[in-house]
Amino acid sequence: MADYAPDYVYVTYIKTTPKKVWDAITVPEFARAYWTYENVSDWKKGSEWSHRTREGKTMIHGTVEEARPPERLVFTWSAPGNEANASRVTFDIVKADGMVKLTVTHSQLREGSDMQKGISKGWPRVLSNLKSWLETGEAMIDDWAKYKEASDI
């Protein structure tokens, strides 16, 4: 049995709608605007998804486990060739007093793994960029490749 790290949970409030958060995660050109990478899938349970560069290279991929637009999305997450160590990402999107409460939970991470180290730096940066993009129309960082540490996710 693998040693799992504690779940990584990130919560942020965004002045937007649940549908806009959902679309920002699931529509490739929107994800590219704040994440550099595109999230590509039909977002149905059992479907494959991939996190791709503009050139089409898959950086992360997995399988959609649950999709309830615009409230909840769950999928597995692994680097190509490392599927045996797949983890799980859950996006919970909830209306909250004229805002959206976005909770991202990354679970089933191997204790001490490069993925665990990478996501603990990457998720705060990506989700802060998502918040800025949705609230202002501009991402704080428009090219993650310029930021070596930020490219961990």
How would you describe this protein?
The protein has 3 helices and 7 strands; from the N terminus they run βααββββββα. The radius of gyration is 15 Å and the shape is globular. The mean pLDDT is 91. The longest helix is centred in the last third of the chain and has 23 residues, at 114-136. It has one domain: Alpha-D-Glucose-1,6-Bisphosphate, Chain A, domain 4, CATH 3.30.530. The protein has helices spanning 18-26, 28-35, 114-136, and strands at residues 8-14, 38-40, 48-52, 58-68, 72-77, 87-96, 99-107. Strands 1-7-6-5-4-3-2 form a 7-stranded antiparallel sheet. Helix 1 crosses helix 2 (28-35) and helix 2 crosses helix 3. Helix content is 26%, strand content 33%. The chain is an alpha+beta fold.
The dominant shape is: globular
- CATH superfamily (homologous) name: START domain
How many helical elements? 3
Biggest sheet features: 7 strands, antiparallel
> What order do the SSEs take from the amino end to the carboxyl end, as H and E?
EHHEEEEEEH
Brief overview:
The protein is α+β, with helices and mostly antiparallel strands and about 150 residues long. About 25% of the residues lie in helices and about 35% in strands.
Question: What keywords describe this structure?
Answer:
single chain, 153 residues, Alpha-D-Glucose-1,6-Bisphosphate, Chain A, domain 4, 7 strands
What does the secondary structure layout of this molecule look like, with pairings?
Layout: E1 8-14, H1 18-26, H2 28-35, E2 38-40, E3 48-52, E4 58-68, E5 72-77, E6 87-96, E7 99-107, H3 114-136
Antiparallel strand pairs: 1-7, 2-3, 3-4, 4-5, 5-6, 6-7
Helix pairs in contact: 1-2, 2-3
